[in-house]
């Protein structure tokens, strides 16, 4: 999800659950690879001229092709994390009756504190006054200790000016094209996975945005480990 264009899904959002489901065995990313998914182990540093990469391999032995009798209905799943975890355990479909229930992951948004940073917010409109302004999301210590990653689900859309821009959440970076770019693939809401930290910083280019933080969900990877 590094680009809002034709290659938007090429890194699967750096999400370990999707790596397991798509049977990803290796990851090669430019150095430093600060968003290595859970379960990936660094095995090699590659250098060619002035270019350097980190090579990691997947240590999660998930059987991406297997038989299952567990069926979940999409209406049971309230977040992208719910859907990932359901697919790890069975199939998700509305075409046959479900035989499983799913306990949705709690939305932790109400337990956090959100404040503008070098920006001014009125309702869902955020005016970013300087480069890398945006929002700070404070995570309680108890949640930092409980979860390895957080999934941040949000609507963020540039309103003006018409410019190439970006979305950053801590070390996550998505390059976004101009609003009238022919191959722009705008998706909303987006879900960004970030490692557990005290502060999740949403950083944006100077401009006016529509912003709505819809949910924050914690992932401890118990489902992935149990399914592997």
Explained architecture:
- The protein has 228 residues and is mainly β.
- Among the domains are: 73-104, no CATH class; 109-223, Jelly Rolls (Sandwich), CATH 2.60.120.
- It is 12% helix and 40% strand.
- It is built from four helices and 15 strands.
- The protein has helices spanning 16-21, 80-89, 141-146, 222-227, and strands at 26-30, 40-48, 51-58, 71-72, 91-92, 113-117, 119-122, 125-128, 133-138, 149-160, 165-169, 172-176, 190-195, 199-204, 207-219.
- The strands form four sheets. The chain has a five-stranded antiparallel β-sheet with strand order 6-9-14-11-12, with no helix packed on it. A five-stranded antiparallel β-sheet has the order 7-8-15-10-13.
- The longest helix has 10 residues, at 80-89.
- The two termini are 25 Å apart.
- The mean pLDDT is 93.
- InterPro entries: Uncharacterised_YfhO.
Q: What's the overall average pLDDT, rounded?
A: 93
In the CATH hierarchy, the third-tier topology of the domain at 109-223 is known as Jelly Rolls
Oligomer: single chain
The coarse overall form would be: globular
Residue stretches low in confidence (pLDDT < 50, at least 5 long) are none
CATH class descriptor of the domain at 109-223? Mainly Beta
**Helix count from the secondary structure assignment:** 4
CATH architecture of the domain at 109-223: Sandwich
CA-to-CA gap between the ends?
25 Å
